[in-house]
Amino acid sequence: MPVMEAMVSVIVVPEAEWKALLAGQAELIRLVKEWQNSIPMTVSTSPYITAMKFMQAVRIGRTKFDQLVAANKVKTIKKDRKIYVPAGEVERYFRSL
Question: What CA–CA distance (Å, rounded) separates 85 from 49?
Fold first, then answer.
């Protein structure tokens, strides 16, 4: 069986171009951090989320949600015609998978 040797490639980049590349990366990182800081952080003061928000968070449809509720795998609270889920259920759902 023939032995294959690893090939190593070396690329030479002029120092000015290398510094320009590093400066461009630093600028991109600065812009990303600036953009992240400009996004308003929304904090939910309610300990409950709607069933629809729960389904969106865990990426399931209504049928699967109803199955989970029927099997007592997701806790819900019904007020009038709305169904609410404790906010901690999203994390608990992923831990139980």
Answer: 5
Give the percent of the chain with pLDDT over 70.
Answer: 91
User: pLDDT grade, residue 41 (50/70/90)?
Assistant: low
- Residue 2 has phi, psi (to 5 degrees) of -70, 145
CA distance 85 to 97: 18
Distances (CA, A) of 60 to 3, 52, 65, 96: 51, 10, 7, 15
The H or E element that residue 58 is part of is helix 51-58
> What's the Rg (C-alpha) of the chain?
26
pTM over 0.70: no
The tokens describing 88, both together, are: 């901690």
- State the DSSP code for 42: P
